[in-house]
Amino acid sequence: MAAKTVRFAVANDLHAQFVPSVTMHTGYPGANARAEWLLSQVEYGGALAGVDFIMGAGDFIHGENLASIGAEMAALKERLAKLPVPFHPCCGNHEVRQQEGDAAWESPYVRAFGADKFDYAIPAGAAEIIVLNNAGTFHVGAARREARLENFRRLLRARPGVPKILVCHIPFLPVRDNAVLRESFGFLSYKALEVELLDTLEVDGGDVRLIISGHLHLTGAVAVGGVRQLVTSGTASFPHDYPVVTVTPDAITVEVRSLPEEMHEPRTNLHGPPRYKKDYTDVAHPTGDAYLRGNADERAFTIPL
Ligand SMILES: [Fe+2]
Ligand SMILES: [Fe+2]
After folding, report:
1. Which of 4, 77, 187, 262 could serve as a FRET partner for 108 with CA atoms 20 to 30 Å apart?
2. 15 C-alpha to ligand 1 centroid (Å)
3. How far is the CA of 10 from the centre of ligand 1 (A)?
4. Structural domains of the chain, ranges and CATH numbers in brackets
5. Which has the closest alpha carbon to 50: 84, 79, 82, 77?
6. Distance 44 CA to ligand 1 centre (A)
7. Please, which residues have CB less than 5 A from ligand 1, an ion?
8. Rounded Cα–Cα distance for residues 17 and 69 (Å)
9. Is residue 1's pLDDT more than 70?
């Protein structure tokens, strides 16, 4: 029997602060309204009505300290409980302030989603989604690196031959010129830095066709070997993009959409003014706009299965 078609939207980098806290950090202007817009679209008549689930790709909240992370995660949990479809989370650095693997920092995430929702797999029609927690890249020690690698290997080897979509907050592959991206993002976590992850993808990742990530607050896609890396800006930062992914028995199709223009807030751009005096560009993206949004073939593509 052919697998049924599965469609899902990805929610990443919402940076929602659905409840104020005494330690609340200044977040992204308008982020709550844009996060709420995306979540509300799965309702009847919405732009995402009919999706089977929402896949999270990290940075659902803004956080920055334990008290605010606790308050914001609890409020997020309350909002997600009202969704008419399942929400599958993936841990981002803002859920744990880069403290990947630290029980105290991870406890709000565990309370919201469960301890088994850091590294796990779910079926997605003809494919499966594997979720990997790499939220603390660059900040992780040896023990965490080994534990993370073990989780990754286990997920990659569990169902050989089943095409895989890997979801992890920090992208494995740079979707812009590596040196330019490092500079424009301005944090060392512009890609997953622990080399054993890419090595393992090469050795055990033959079933991985697509990697879905966030974190960079820009949109782009790059193909390396048989793997496509997709990053979308998410809702907090301009240009406020989110992807819709359809898995049929024959193909994975990705379509990147933008939030309604009246909700756009150009001040939230991480890769240009007002954070920097200039727009960033690279060889394949000669304007600031192309650098932020990606070219047409990065925003819509099909991967045959
Ligand atoms: Fe983010
Ligand atoms: Fe992030």
Report:
1. 187
2. 6
3. 14
4. 6-304 (3.60.21.10)
5. 84
6. 28
7. 13, 59
8. 9
9. no
CA of 237 to the centre of ligand 2 (A): 12
For ligand 2, the distance from its centroid to the CA atom of residue 223, given in whole angstroms, is: 22
Q: Facing residues of 223 across strands?
A: 228
Pairing of strands 241-247, 251-258: antiparallel
Global pTM reads: 0.98
From ligand 1's centre to the CA of 214, what distance in Å? Answer: 7
Cα 40–218–277 angle (5° rounding)?
125
Question: Token pair 């992208």 is at which residue?
Answer: 171
Residue 48 C-alpha to ligand 2 middle, in angstroms? Answer: 24
278 CB-contact burial (10 Å; exposed 0-12 / middle 13-18 / buried 19+): exposed
Kindly report, residue by residue over 207-241, the tens digit of the pLDDT: 999 999 999 999 999 999 899 999 999 999 999 99
Q: Which residue has the tokens 């995660």?
A: 73
b/e per residue, 41-72, with b = 16+ CB within 10 A?
bbeeeebbeebbbbbbbbbbbbbbebebbbbb
Please give the distance, rounded to the nearest whole angstrom, from the Cα atom of residue 216 to the centre of ligand 1: 7
Q: How confident is the model over 9-42, as pLDDT tens digits? A: 999 999 999 999 999 999 999 999 999 999 999 9
